[in-house]
């Protein structure tokens, strides 16, 4: 009688294998890991704090520097206040038989004229009013030649002083010595010396700033003329007397 073959029992599938018992981590390892994690978090917190502090410092420094720049620009762009004409100039004008200091009774206009537009100024020489968009250019101006008065008024608007004179040799012309003395003053301080043949009758020299005018006869002496010119420079050149008082050449 043949023997029955014994069936082999299938091997246990890994899926059905009993799970391996979990190993418990030693208490010391868990503590060290937690300590490392805490140290890492502390480093991150400290790094973020340093970054915030650095950004705050940069913002503070930037703001401080910006404030300094603002005040520096404001300081250099500030327009000194106009002053009263010095007594030396007032007394010299009186002694020379000059006019009193003349000003406009109303706020003078200072708009730009349109291209091709002309204007008839009520005063000679003009010290304010609408004017050319161009001002006097020292690089192209002929020193002994008359100028476009609308450009001269624009130059006065920028805080310059202009001394106009009737050329020597003409009737009521300014004496040569007086003209030479004025020339030494008008080479500086945004001040011009310009011929003006059409000055009013019996006027040899006119001292002008924006909305300021003194006219004098040919009998004026060199010291008197220099005292008035220096007074105009001291009181009005590059000051708030003019609408744009710090824009003149030399200001």
List keywords for this structure.
251 residues; alpha+beta; 2 domains; 4 strands
Topology (SSEs and partners):
Layout: H1 27-77, H2 87-95, H3 149-157, E1 161-165, H4 176-185, E2 191-195, E3 205-209, E4 212-216, H5 222-236
Parallel strand pairs: 1-2
Antiparallel strand pairs: 1-3, 3-4
- As a whole number of angstroms, the C-alpha radius of gyration is 44 Å
Structural class: alpha+beta
- N/C terminus separation: 136 Å
Secondary-structure element order, N to C: HHHEHEEEH
Oligomer: single chain
Average pLDDT taken over every residue: 84
Helix content: 25-40%
Number of helices: 5
Structural shape: rod-shaped
What is the strand arrangement across the widest sheet?
2-1-3-4
Low-confidence stretches: 68-76
Q: Quick one: biggest sheet? A: 4 strands, mixed
Tell me the total number of β-strands. Answer: 4
Describe it.
This protein has 251 residues and is of the alpha+beta class. The protein is built from five helices and four strands; from the N terminus they run αααβαβββα. It has helices at 27-77, 87-95, 149-157, 176-185, 222-236; strands at 161-165, 191-195, 205-209, 212-216. Strands 2-1-3-4 form a four-stranded mixed beta sheet. It is rod-shaped, with a radius of gyration of 44 Å. The N and C termini lie far apart (136 Å).
């Amino acid at each position: 009688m043949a023997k029955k073959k014994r069936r082999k029992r299938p091997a246990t599938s890994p899926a059905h294998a009993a799970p391996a018992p979990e190993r418990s981590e030693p208490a010391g390892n868990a503590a060290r890991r937690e300590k490392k994690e805490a140290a890492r978090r502390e480093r991150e917190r400290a790094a973020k704090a340093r970054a915030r502090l650095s950004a705050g410092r940069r913002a503070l420094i930037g703001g401080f520097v910006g404030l300094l720049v603002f005040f520096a620009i404001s300081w250099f762009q500030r327009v000194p206040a106009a002053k009263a004409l010095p007594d030396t100039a007032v007394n010299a004008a009186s002694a020379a038989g000059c006019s009193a200091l003349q000003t406009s009774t109303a706020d003078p206009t200072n708009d730009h004229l349109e291209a091709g537009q002309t204007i008839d100024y009520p005063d000679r020489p003009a010290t304010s009013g609408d004017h050319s968009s161009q001002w006097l250019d020292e690089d192209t101006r002929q020193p002994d030649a008359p100028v476009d008065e609308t450009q001269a008024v624009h130059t006065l608007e920028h805080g310059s002083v202009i001394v106009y004179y009737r050329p020597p040799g003409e009737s009521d012309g300014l004496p040569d010595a007086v003209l030479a003395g004025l020339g030494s003053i008008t080479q500086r301080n945004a001040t011009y010396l310009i011929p003006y043949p059409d000055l009013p009758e019996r006027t040899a020299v006119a001292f002008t700033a924006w909305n300021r005018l003194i006219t004098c006869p040919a009998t004026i002496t060199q010291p008197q003329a220099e005292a008035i010119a220096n007074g105009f420079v001291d009181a009005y050149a590059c000051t708030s007397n003019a609408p744009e008082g710090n824009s003149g050449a030399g200001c």
